[in-house]
Automatic annotation (TrEMBL):
Its main location: other. Keywords: ATP-binding, FAD, Fatty acid metabolism, Flavoprotein, Lipid metabolism, Nucleotide-binding, Oxidoreductase, Peroxisome. One of its GO terms (biological process) is lipid homeostasis. Pfam families: ACOX, ACOX_C_alpha1, Acyl-CoA_ox_N. GO terms for cellular component: peroxisome. Residues 285-446 form the Acyl-CoA oxidase C-alpha1 domain. InterPro entries: ACOX_C_alpha1 (IPR055060), Acyl-CoA_ox_N (IPR029320), Acyl-CoA_Oxase/DH_mid-dom_sf (IPR046373), Acyl-CoA_oxidase (IPR012258), Acyl-CoA_oxidase_C (IPR002655), AcylCo_DH-like_C (IPR036250), AcylCoA_DH/ox_N_sf (IPR037069), AcylCoA_DH/oxidase_NM_dom_sf (IPR009100). Residues 23-140 form the Acyl-coenzyme A oxidase N-terminal domain. It comes from Caenorhabditis angaria. This is Acyl-coenzyme A oxidase. The lineage of its organism: Eukaryota, Metazoa, Ecdysozoa, Nematoda, Chromadorea. Pathway: Lipid metabolism; peroxisomal fatty acid beta-oxidation. FAD binds at T149, G188.
Length: 667
């Protein structure tokens, strides 16, 4: 046994835990929403651990693509056989946790069934359709996906090419893919698993195109699982990540579906072909808004996992001997290591708390929509799009920083970083390409700026800062006295300035060029304005959450929240220095604030990541193991390699042996 292990755990990590200045359980409960939530997490975890059906035969990294899809399908069927173990109404909490423990990050053939097919049925069907389809989907007598993106178009939905042409003589729609670029491409679970899909197609009736609309479509025979006549589909091949999912392609050849296959909660086509428009033209995009809003928690969870792995590993890894003869130190003691890892932990917290906010806002929207009120839609569209973009981008960069912080072992799949990255970085693209989504936020901000300039502004709270008259210079005197209100005021200043800078640029360009060119020529600045708007929201949400925390937890968390804010300010100091809003000495003060926060977090870092309550089963990382015994675990993990099944593999006989023999004979 290693000299670093005592009572089963690594001695360094045990020492770290003894240093905790707060109660880890209390912190976990605060992070996750209370004691009852924590208790339920533990019950779900115990259940998953005790069920042999959920075990992987070997770590999934060693499985082939076919084995991954097969293993994932086996597990998701077992998992959904047992949904009585969780509160089905709490997808955001219990549902996501259960799935994460059982399925990991490889995704699976029913991902889209649960994330988009079911929510689309819930959100877009009329009562009759709901009664027909929802029970089948919940019971899993059908498996569905969401087929919107095509080979030629993902972003620009108005140019989707799949057509759904209404034929009043038979009261059917004819689905057709007129070109190669009309092929649906990407939908999860479409390749080999789903037998139904929500297909988004251009609706034609009475000779007119009414734009993209959702239809429920049977793709495969219910018994044989063979494609229906007129339907061609398959798997799109391996991807950067989520290879347990059979993302697919789909083409239609004049495939007929009944009129009632069009989801008719908002838009309708009557039997004679008369079209009835929805109350808001974007109501049909509701499922995307839903997924963007739940993605935030998922991304936060991935970044939190990466930060946990990096922190625990940094506590057990010793390298370098600053005082020769005193022994090597834990790499977590290097300020550079802290600077690399702790901001990622801080971001993960910021994102998680924002995820709770957007969840609540989305629930409000759902409630309002039941009363036909669409007022909240633009705000939620802007906020969910903005959060999705900033959070997924920072998460991807943060995971990579965590990987780098673990040196060579971070590059091994044993660390889980490649899998976490491959899974999370997809979020930069799916549900709307990040830059495109930032430009959606910008449309919202431009309107707010316009109202402010006209002096007619009655802005929503989220962009109220745009119409404020702020200070000309920062009120920061010393970092010790830098209050939450001052921090927010400074960020508001920069966000407001960027919003007006982009707005003025746009307006000026509009005087000289066509509106679309003006928009394009201003789009980098507009996207920057959106980023600042979202960062401001994240900082505000985080600081306010911590301000309301119980004193014992606030004492610790205040340093994490301030690190998040100071890191943003110091890494964009140019924006704060512009026009003398801040002086260089104030920036120096904020940088010192960063270093102070790092030093405050260092002694409690392991306990802070423990508070996220990841079990080893969820982390799936040899480097992030709770007991800290990474070296033993790495050696053991490598034994799973197929190459280790025999001492000598055929490549020796075939290639290396003859090569060396030949070379020896010539010496
Ligand atoms: C358990 C863990 C869960 C998470 C993990 C999930 C893993 C699953 C993996 C993958 C799933 C991925 C599934 C998919 O990717 S499905 C496909 C998603 N596709 C997209 O997101 C497409 C992106 N494109 C769009 O959303 C739109 O086309 C657009 C870019 C917004 C442009 O739309 P359009 O051209 O129609 O509109 P305009 O630009 O002209 O704008 C007109 C006005 O409408 C407003 N608008 C646009 N969208 C919405 C909306 N959704 N809600 C409300 N309002 C909207 C827009 O802002 C304009 O307003 P304005 O007032 O300025 O005129
Ligand atoms: C892992 C994964 C899973 C997916 N699952 C599904 C699924 O289940 N169902 C489904 O229907 N789809 C799915 N998709 C597709 C996904 O939603 C699209 O890929 C995404 O919306 C981006 O669209 P695109 O591929 O057309 O990108 P493009 O729009 O071609 O983007 C390419 C580049 O062009 C830029 N660009 C495009 N338009 C503009 C503009 N107006 N202004 C400025 N820049 C612009 C983008 O910013 C980007 O840099 C999935 C994708 C991935 C990666």
């Amino acid at each position: 046994m290693s000299r670093w292990i005592q009572n089963g755990d690594n001695v360094d990590i045990t020492k770290e835990r003894k240093n905790a200045t707060f109660n880890t359980e209390r912190m976990s409960a605060w992070i996750h929403g209370g004691d009852e939530v924590l208790k339920r997490r533990r019950e779900i975890l115990d259940y998953v651990k005790s069920n042999p059906d959920f075990k992987d035969p070997i770590p999934v990294e060693f499985l082939s693509r076919e084995e991954r899809v097969s293993n994932g399908t086996r597990k998701i069927v077992k998992m959904t056989d047992n949904t009585d173990q969780i509160d089905g109404a709490d997808f955001f909490g219990e549902g996501m946790y259960f799935q994460s423990l059982v399925m990991g990050r490889d995704l699976h053939p029913l991902s889209l069934h649960y994330i988009m097919f079911l929510p689309t049925l819930q959100g877009q069907t009329d009562d009759e359709q709901l009664d027909e389809w929802l029970p089948k989907a919940i019971a899993r007598s059908i498996v569905g996906t969401y087929a919107q993106t095509e080979l030629g178009h993902g972003t620009n939905l108005s140019k989707l090419e799949t057509t759904a042409t209404y034929d009043p003589s038979t009261q059917e729609f004819v689905l057709h893919s007129p070109t190669i670029t009309a092929a649906k491409w990407w939908p999860g679970g479409l390749g080999k698993s789903s037998n139904h899909a929500i297909v988004v197609a251009q609706l034609y009736t009475k000779g007119q195109c009414k734009g993209p609309h959702p239809f429920i479509v049977q793709l495969r025979d219910l018994e044989t699982h063979k494609p229906m006549k007129g339907v061609r589909l398959g798997d799109i091949g391996p991807k950067l990540g989520i290879n347990g999912s059979d993302n697919g392609f789909l083409l239609f050849d004049k495939y007929r579906i009944p009129r009632k296959a069009m989801l008719m909660r908002y838009s309708k086509v009557q039997p004679d072909g008369t079209y009835i428009a929805p109350a808001h033209s974007k109501l049909g995009y509701g499922t995307m808004v839903f997924v963007r809003s739940i993605m935030i928690k998922d991304q936060a969870t991935q970044l939190g996992a990466a930060a946990t792995i990096a922190t625990r590993y940094s506590a057990v890894r010793r390298q370098g001997e600053p005082v020769v003869g005193n022994g090597e130190i834990q790499i977590l003691d290097y300020q550079t290591q802290q600077y690399r890892v702790f901001p990622q932990l801080a971001r993960a917290f910021a994102f998680l708390f924002a995820a709770y906010e957007i969840r609540d806002l989305y629930l409000r929207l759902t409630e309002e929509l039941t009363h036909g009120n669409t007022e909240l839609l633009p705000e939620i569209h802007a906020l969910s799009s903005g959060l999705k973009s900033v959070v997924s981008w920072d998460t991807a960069q943060g995971i990579e920083q965590c990987r780098l912080s673990c040196g060579g072992h971070g590059y091994s799949q044993a660390s889980a970083f490649p899998e976490i990255y491959g899974y999370a970085v997809g979020g930069c693209t799916y549900e709307g390409e990040n830059l495109v989504m930032l430009l959606q936020v910008a449309r919202y901000l431009v309107k707010a700026a316009e109202e402010t300039r006209k002096g007619t502004s009655n802005l929503a709270e989220i962009c109220g800062y745009i119409s404020k008259t702020g200070r000309r210079t920062s009120s920061l005197t010393s970092i010790a006295n830098y209050t939450t209100d001052q921090i927010i005021e400074d960020l508001e200043h920069v966000a407001r300035k960027q919003v007006f800078h982009a707005y003025d640029k746009l307006k000026k360009a509009q005087q000289h060029v066509k509106p679309e060119d003006a928009w394009n020529q201003s789009s980098v600045e507009l996207a920057k304005a959106s980023r600042w708007h979202v960062r401001l929201y994240l900082v505000k949400t985080f600081l306010k959450k911590v301000d309301k925390a119980p004193e014992d937890l606030k004492k610790v968390m205040i340093h994490v929240a301030r690190l998040y804010a100071f890191d943003i300010i110091s890494s964009s100091s140019g924006n704060f220095l512009e026009e003398g809003y801040m002086r260089p000495d104030q920036i120096t003060e904020i940088k010192e604030g960063v270093y102070e926060c790092l030093a405050k977090i260092r002694p409690v870092a392991v306990s802070l990541v423990d508070s996220w309550d990841y079990d080893d089963l969820e982390l799936k990382s040899v480097l992030g193991k709770r007991d800290g015994n990474v070296y033993e675990a790495l050696l053991q993990w490598a034994q799973n390699s197929q190459l280790n099944k025999s001492d000598v593999i055929p490549t020796f006989e075939k290639y290396l042996g003859p090569m060396m023999k030949d070379a020896r004979s010539k010496l």
